[in-house]
Amino acid sequence: MENNLSQNGGGAHPAPAPIKVSSLNFIDLSNPDIQQTVSSLKQACLDCGFFYVVNHGISQEFMDEVFAQSKRFFQLPLNAKMKLLRNEKHRGYTPILDELLDPENQKHGDYKEGYYIGVEVPEDDPDAEKPFYGPNVWPSEDILPAWRQTMEKFHREALEVAKSVARIIALALDLNTDFFDKPEMLGKPIATLRLLHYGGQISDPSNGLYGAGAHSDFGLITLLATDDVMGLQICKDKDAKPQIWEFVAPLKGAFIVNLGDMLERWSNCIFKSTLHRVLGNGQDRYSIAYFVEPSHDCLVECLPTCKSEINPPKFPPIKCATYLSQRYRDTHADLSLYSEHQT
């Protein structure tokens, strides 16, 4: 079902084309009827790979504080933010145009800036050698008091929400509830918090200008919290000509959750990792994405419940760290460009 929202102001001018808004299923983590929850989530995963998660246990007061702290960072002068430029471990600040998600259709990189925060691993820990583990890059406490504590607390709480959602996904795939809780899965996950700011540019798809180009996410699932500015769009059928894009309405207090490419591989394409993009409408827009992937050494291969003689695996097995590293290389600017610019 879809809603058509018309943005007309009356008068003699013709009304703009209606805006398509997608209706997504609601997954209530406080619902005692687990079968109903599993059924609703499974339908969402088969239909479009996007759904809302409500009653997830993170208070609205704390979510408001995370957004306020995010805004404080992005309001810093550019030279202060560039001192925290992302490193080779993808920790820190990503400037506007740093990311190019849809090179076939984008004229420039994404008109957004971001900040990556991963699992905090001390430099002297053997795990810090892994591509997506290591120390985070933090703004000075003098500049942004309590910023690190706020983000670390959100990272912890969002991971618990993600694990709750993953248990329902496991049941929807006829697996044991704790399938994704194993050490090689979400026991030692690659979980990345990304603060995002879209700076008020107006997107123009006909000219290849986007807040974020069309893409699917790389991992298991993504949790997204947004402010009240519309911008996110999904395309349920990426092979349709022309593609049909529908907005996803912001919903205060909810996470918008979508499935990633690894889950599509695990499920042998039974569950979809759906194309999505962001269009800017001239307003500042803030969102907070939490990307959840399994451990570095996890082998992503077709699940036993998702294959048969007539439906063999569609993808070869691949190690999580290998897959993620390639996807990040494909979509982010080479860091040497920044050092060349600064010199």
Largest sheet: 8 strands, mixed
Strand content: 15-25%
Order of helices and strands: EEEHEHHEEHHEEEEEEHEEEEHH
Low-pLDDT runs: 1-15
Helical residue percent band: 25-40%
What is the end-to-end distance?
54 Å
Description:
The chain has 343 residues and is an alpha+beta fold. It has eight helices and 16 strands. The chain has an eight-stranded mixed beta sheet. Strands 8-13-10-11 form a four-stranded antiparallel beta sheet, with no helix packed on it. A two-stranded antiparallel ribbon has the order 1-2. Helix 1 links the parallel strand 3 and strand 4 (50-54). Helix 1 packs across helix 4 and helix 2 (60-74) packs across helix 4. The protein is globular and about 55 Å long. The protein starts with a strand and ends with a helix. Mean pLDDT is 91; it is low at 1-15.
Give a quick precis of the structure.
This protein is 26% helix and 21% strand. With 343 residues, it is α+β, with helices and mostly antiparallel strands.
List keywords for this structure.
343 residues, alpha+beta, eight-stranded mixed β-sheet, four-stranded antiparallel β-sheet, 8 helices, 26% helix, globular, disordered N terminus
